[in-house]
Amino acid sequence: MNLEETLKCIGPLDEEAMKISRKRWDSIAKPLYSLGKLESLLVQIAGITGSQEIDLSKKALVPMCADNGVVAEGVTQTGQEVTAIVAENFLTCETSAAIMCKNAGADIFPVDIGVAVDTNIINRKIAYGTKNMAVEPAMTREEAIRGLETGIAMVKELKDKGYKIIATGEMGIGNTTTSSAVAAVLLGQPAEAVTGKGAGLTSAGLEKKIATIKKAIALHKPDREDPIDVLAKVGGFDIAGIAGMFLGGAAYHVPVVIDGFISAVSALLACRLAPLAKGYMISSHVSKEPAAHMILEALDQSPCLHCDMCLGEGTGAVALFPVLEMAAAVYQGMSTFSDIEIEEYKPLS
Ligand SMILES: O=C(O)c1ccc[n+]([C@@H]2O[C@H](COP(=O)([O-])O)[C@@H](O)[C@H]2O)c1
Ligand SMILES: Cc1cc2nc[nH]c2cc1C
């Protein structure tokens, strides 16, 4: 489906499936709501898929990999060449996220959506990196739409292969600069309120990063009411791809997991394009990037993992997989009040 068709078919969660799922939790022999967010996450998954039967047997991580022209402004601690190296290392299990996937029984599908050189990962390249947003728009509007559609198509492809839940991830030197710029515009916040040190910037580097974001926003005046304009002028191909995955999840009824700062900003962008997509996003952790909590609040998300992680790649999203599987094991296998012949709790009013 193209972007327009995708946006049109995003509707509310399945209330009936959620009601049955909630009833199942309430019948399990334990104090009501005592598994907290583990319960509400599975109820949400039932609402997303339209079935109270929770199947997490096939899990995937899709790290969207791309370069950012704004790196030329000196806003990062490491050079652009790191993007391609780490992107290819997903395939050889030499990234943190790949090892976590192996441990969690998840498959990994790294996508080159805009790395500055040719790579051996899944080729969905829109361009060899974005333009430097401090000088010109990062990409054209048409490229932004193609990026969103790339994410939508990835979800469809993985659903057709039988994947039941998909974690988002990314790799792209400079992508905390683009993410902060997108967040500043969408939230109407000054750059300093939404910008952190990314992958280990110095304090002097942080000042330069904030100044660069301010310059790009002043130069292009992205239209806050037009998320595609914001994405095209100050975003990145990775953000486009991930935002597309959230839209695809909502349209194809597949739970898609939010990872760290970049992923959460992409989720916010997707929500601005399709407000109902919010219900289809599964939150995992709160990144240590200072504005992460602000973005998650804007998304009404209350993640269950607080681990001070800020690695990206999808590490936080994949860390949620074993937690969800444990919750599903209780949901599916635990005795009910009637099984063990004790009186059921009356649901709280
Ligand atoms: O996901 C996060 O919360 C996160 C926070 C800080 C850094 N990162 C990772 O670090 C890279 C971007 O950092 P930077 O400083 O180059 O913009 C990119 O590859 C991300 O995966 C990720
Ligand atoms: C080595 C390295 C690995 C990463 N993974 C995500 N962002 C990263 C940034 C660097 C520098």
Automatic annotation (TrEMBL):
Functional note: Catalyzes the synthesis of alpha-ribazole-5'-phosphate from nicotinate mononucleotide (NAMN) and 5,6-dimethylbenzimidazole (DMB).
Protein name: Nicotinate-nucleotide--dimethylbenzimidazole phosphoribosyltransferase
Family, per entry: Belongs to the CobT family.
Catalysed reaction, written as an equation: 5,6-dimethylbenzimidazole + nicotinate beta-D-ribonucleotide = alpha-ribazole 5'-phosphate + nicotinate + H(+)
Single Gene Ontology MF annotation: nicotinate-nucleotide-dimethylbenzimidazole phosphoribosyltransferase activity
Alphabetical GO biological process terms: cobalamin biosynthetic process
Catalytic-site annotation from UniProt: E313 (proton acceptor)
PANTHER family: NICOTINATE-NUCLEOTIDE--DIMETHYLBENZIMIDAZOLE PHOSPHORIBOSYLTRANSFERASE
SUPFAM superfamilies: Nicotinate mononucleotide:5,6-dimethylbenzimidazole phosphoribosyltransferase (CobT) (SSF52733)
Pathway given in the UniProt record: Nucleoside biosynthesis; alpha-ribazole biosynthesis; alpha-ribazole from 5,6-dimethylbenzimidazole: step 1/2
HAMAP family hit by this protein: CobT
E.C. number: 2.4.2.21
Pfam families linked to this entry: DBI_PRT (PF02277)
CDD domains: DMB-PRT_CobT
InterPro entries: Nict_dMeBzImd_PRibTrfase, Nict_dMeBzImd_PRibTrfase_bact, Nict_dMeBzImd_PRibTrfase_N, Nict_dMeBzImd_PRibTrfase_sf
Keyword field: Cobalamin biosynthesis, Glycosyltransferase, Transferase
